[in-house]
Structures are given as structure tokens and as C-alpha cells.
Amino acid sequence: MSRRPLALLSAVLLSQACNPVTEESPAPAPEAATAVEQPLAVAGFAELHHHMFAEEAFGGGWFHGSHTGTLVSCDGGEPESDHARVRMDLSNLLNVCPNAGGVDLSSTPVLAQLFGIGGAVGSEFIGKIEGTEGDTGLHLGRKQVPTQWPRWDTIAHQQAWEGWLKQAKDGGLSLVTVSLVSNGFLCSALPYQNLNRPCDEMADIELQLQMARDFDARTDWAEIALSPAHARQIIGAGKLAMVLSIETSKLFGTKDWRAELNRFHSLGVRSIQPVHQLDNRFGGAALHNAIFQAAQFLENCHIDTDCGVTGNGFTLGFDVDANCRNVKGLTADGRALVQEMMAKGMLIDVAHMSERSVRDTFAVSQANSYYPLYVSHGHFREVMNPKLAENEKTTPAWVVKQLRQTGGMFGLRTAHDETRAYTRTAVANSCQGSTRSLAQAYEFGRQGLKVPMAFGADLNGFIQQTRPRFGSYGACSAGFKAEADAQAAQQRISGPARLGTDFDVYGLAHVGLLPDVVRDLKQLGVNTTGLENSAETFIRMWERAQSTRTGMADAAADIDTSGVAPYVEKATREAQYPQVCGKAYAPNSKVLGETCRFNEECVSAKCTSLDCGNITGTCICDGDNDCATSQYCGWGLNTGICQNKKARGALCSENRECLSNNCRWTFTCG
Questions:
Q1: What pTM was estimated for this model as a whole?
Q2: Fewer beta carbons within 10 Å, N or C terminal of the chain?
């Protein structure tokens, strides 16, 4: 189908509506290869989870910046700002539940800040993680585009501008799954004056769908793909294939879900997550962020004491077992939805499903000759740091085995997190949160789990991205300050060198830099062949969904989760560093001009900081030997700044200021 008839059809239809691998029973043998002629492989890599139109998620009240037009600097979160802040009176939200008064949130900082103190403090806290103060609340230092935003730590400013998407396409991206997204709880927490409409998840989805149609209609280098063959045609024509997906907890609202599924399919949606952040009428969700546990609590006022996910000895909202896993799987409607999606040849994304929901979905897949399932964005549990690995949302090896058996694939999050070292790669895990960490997860997936992978970046997804290896904006900072400084210094000395793009110092700031992630992984020594050809992998998965299957795609009997190094706790690592004023530091890790806390951090042994490093300073020269051979250490107004030596005839006061090393009695260089 051509794009113009599709656009016409869209308009007509819219007018009508507003752990370790577990033991399993022996699986049947993989299906035999048939002699069906294969189409020519498409070129390029895929991004499986991209929120291009999320400026209209959450009632349109969170993000600054549009996906189209001209990007402009923001107000920095000054009072009455139109973005990046929550309401002042969030404590009232919990009063919906009569048992809320007995909930002690002191052990859960993000919830204590949001509900205990108030939205002003909560807004500052939301974007703050190790290595950054974030871009939420008052962010006067993050106003200017493109230098102060976007960066790797952006969660409230645009990362999916169409110019950046075109940049990614020109750099090798050939297929992108565009996820239409919303969350009613996040919308309800935003200032009323910032909302563009009442909080309604499906209303947000409808609007983003229309935005996608509009983008398709006016863009000559990208097009919405309706089938695997259509995707091949689009990519073959040199354009970017876009696959529309839905990610929201209140999926289809309270309407007849069968009618809604039919309608959205008719409008071009080809992938759906039956479950998102919260339990819904289709199934149970995987627990992770405490904010969504509070959101689930407001849905049912349930406090579970079987396992302490939210706080000491309790879990808000979700019914969990002793292992902190959601006990809810697919409902009858959920099984029927999955079955109906299979009948339509749609792609089933299990990224946010509880483990029980995944098992139930896999059972439906098995009953349908191993219909393909995929994870659009996720972390491999076994290789992540223990705190993250505790989350049910992380993907264990047994789920990956099921994906492989169905002929599915995995979208790897371009995460900012600490990973454990994977000893079967030559890439040193020596810059936490950067491409070096991403390489550990990718190689674990490639060599150990042997699962087909693409990117699952989740840009504009309220989550941070891959940190840089260089510069002053959180390089290598997923661990702690002293380690980050030491590792960043090592990157500068040992390389590999900078790419020469914004990715070097801003990390994965926006979608246009995804090709640079590939380039940096390659120069680190990662085998990226599968990643660089992941668009073809995605299309083949889609073709499998729409073709006759005779059994399992892959027995996946060769999964090997060994080779992951033990995790060393941060406190143990930090204790290995010397201290000044009770703070760990990395000796000689800072060069001239870099921010410092102590003299000992600077190669020059001179830092302009004050108050025991509480007021940071800059590394400056303390003698000519701190400068290049053609420079001298300045004095007066230029104290501590290396100056270029002067040519013959220039004014001077000392011999060291002159290239000739001769300052004459006339105070000029000889």
C-alpha cells in the first residue's frame, strides 16, 4: 500500500473515533529449513523503542521541545516553568487511600521527596543520579540548546527531533519502532497549568498516532511500514522504515478492546505492549521504579508484606511473592488479546510484563507454533549491577531462551548503569556507564545468550542514556566520583580516541548519535556485525509472525551465563582511594582547565577550589613545567593560565615569556 492511500484511510478512521535458567520440559526440535527463496537482506541497524512524539505524552505537560520545527532554549525551570516539574501538593495524592497514613516512605528517597516534603523538592530529585544533577526542577545551567541540552542525562527535554532522526538515518539507522506512550499517574502529578488536556492515556496515544501520520505525510525520507514486505520496500528505496507501537498501562481504556485493536491496526499500529508500568485488565507488570509502585497503590490501596520492594518489609500496590515478583500473569482478556494479535500478524512486545505474564504469553506462543515474541528495550539481568538486577523488569536468561525459541529478538537498552565485567570480551570495563559498560552487556548477549539484538534506546523515555568517556559532563560516572575521575583520565591517556562528535562529551544525548554508539563500540573492539544488520533481523522476525510456522525457531540449548565477573561493592572500591577532607579522590586525574576539588587531583598540583572542595575550582598551572614547551605559566591577570610564548619584539618581563628565551633590557623579546 502506498503512503497516500494510507493517509486517506487514517483520516477516515480517525473521524470515526475521537534469574538463572530454569529447568523446562523438553522442547520440540526446531523446524526444518525450507527451500523458500529469501528476499535480499536490507541494510542498516534498528532501534526498537523510540518515543518520537512523547512531547504529547502525560497530557503534554512534561517535555520541553518539539519533534519538529526549530528547537529553542528553555526557561531553565524558573518558577511557573512549563516543563520538568511536578505539582507542589503531591502529598494529597496518597490520601485517596485510607491506609496511606501507615506507610513509612523514609527508606524510599524518591517517594519521600515527592509525597513527604513536596513537589518542589521532588522536581529537583527526579533527575538526580550519580554523576549528574539532572535537567528537572530548577535547571538554570541546562537551558541552552544544543550545548546544555540534550545530554545523556536528559529526561525532560527533546531527544527525538526530526533533524536528529534524519542524522541517525544517514548514519545507518534504517528501521525504527516508534512507541506511542503515556502514563496517567505521571500526568496527574504535573502542574495543572502545564497540561494541554485532561489526563487520559489513550487520548495521548490517539494524538501521537495522528502526529505520526502527519510526519509520514510530509516526510520524503521516512515512511510508516505496514508489513515486512513494505518495510523492505521502504528501506530499499533509501528511506527509514517506521513501525508504530503502543506502550501504555491503560491500554484501550474501558472500551471494547477487540474493536479498538481492530481500529488501531487499521490505522497502522503493528506492535503493542499488552502491559506497561501497572497491572491492567490484560496482565501483570514487572516491578522496577518505586514511582510506579506508588502509582499502583493509588489504583488499589494494596500494601503487600510478602517482600519489601518499595521499602523495609513492604511493597506498595503490587501483590508479590517472597521473591519480590508480581504474582499476576495474563488474564483471560490478556490471553485473548495476545491470540488476536497473533491472528493479525502483529508483533508482541513483552518488555514490561511480569515474569508470570511472560510465561503465560510464551505458552500462547507455543500453542501457535512458537509465534515470535520480542523485548523492545531491556537489560540482561545476569550482567547488570546487583541493585538493578533485583528488578523484575530486567530480563533473565530463561526469558531470552524463550525469545530465541520463538524466533524473537532483544532491544538492548543503551543504559547509563554500572555493569559487571564480562570476561569473554577483550573490552575493559573501565569507564562505568559508557560504551565500555554497554560493551559488557552486548557481548554477554552476543557470546553468552546468543540472542539477536538491536538497540532499545528508549530516548524521550524518562530515562538516562549512555554516558560519555570524555569531558566534564559525567564521563564514566556510574560508580562514584573518585572512580569516575580515575577512569576518565585513563580514557584520555589510553583511548581509544574521541570520535570528534558531540557523543564524546555529551554521551548519547539524542537519537542522531546512535550511529556514534556503533562507531565507538567498534573502535573499542566489539563485534557489531549483528547490531549493524539488525533491521534485517527485525524484518525476518516480522515475516515469521506472518508466515506458516512448523515449530520452534531455535532450541537455544547453547545459552551460557558464565564468564560474568563478581560484582565489587562501591564502598569496597572507594576505600582503595586516598582521601582529603574525608572525601575520596583520584590523584593526578585532572589536567589544566578541568574542574577540581583538591590540589592533589590536579596533575599540576594546583586547584582553585575553596572550603575543602565544597566550592569546586579549576586546575591551573603552578610553573612553566605544567605548560607546553611553547608556553609559560602566566602571572597577574593571567595567573595560573598557560600563555603562548612571544615572538621577537613583543613586550615581556622575563626571559621565559619569549620564544627566544631572551627578554631584553627594553622589555621586548629578542
A1: 0.92
A2: N
